[in-house]
Here is the input.
Amino acid sequence: MSLRFRVLGSGSTGNATLVEAGGTRVLVDAGLGPRSLAERLQDAGVDPASLAAIFVSHEHGDHARGAAAFSAKWGVRLCGSRGTYAAAAFGAVEISGYDVAQAGVPRRVGALTVTAVAVPHDAAEPFAFVIAGDGACLGHATDFGHVSRGLVEAFRSCDALLMESNYDPAMLRDGPYPWSLKERILGPLGHVSNDDVGRFLGRGLGEACRLLVLAHLSQQNNHPEVALMTAETALRRRGRTEVRVELTSAEGTGWITVGPPANGHGGGGSRQLRLF
Ligand SMILES: [Zn+2]
Ligand SMILES: [Zn+2]
Here is the structure.
């Protein structure tokens, strides 16, 4: 028994992460079309109708594009903020149902407990999520302009983190985007850079964390090797070489298992991580 997750898509082409523990499965985001979401779930050996809920982080298309149609087709309820409900116009289309999540209030979904965390991003009411089950805990945050104190606190006890590492600042500045878009991405409500992630790893990473998955990498303004090297350098400087760093491409990852504490009692230094 353990918590495991699998990224089904990541980045501007569409985000979705499947999380499972104790026989309960949820999606974080549904930014792929309903057909390709169903295909990627089936590739993972998961019946789309078996999902307990889809947690929608915010209304931007790369996170919410397929949510309504998938919900209606497979009878899966959506869950997210009031602001996301309004901004995504979920009230105007057919969906299986919508549960309003509030930041900081844990929500029990079968064997999983999901807690929303408010994040700074230029959307109506965007959330990150902390998902716990089977004695392990995953922090999941894409699309946020800076690492807020609230996010650091919420992630402090997580065994694994999936975080965006969106851009390399020099590549973004010198790249082809119009200046207005560059300003938006660079701003406090835009996206976080490799360097922002590095600073967080140096100062805010919790002791329990053993795995970091870097996600939502820009194809225009980042190189996977640069994102990886920046994170690994920050961890090495901090003496945190036990933290494994993984990258996800647009196509996602295989299953990643976050084991419960090896001695069954918690304790930062004794957590076990298995990857396969
Ligand atoms: Zn996004
Ligand atoms: Zn966004």
Q: What stands out?
A: The first strand starts at residue 3 and ends at 9.
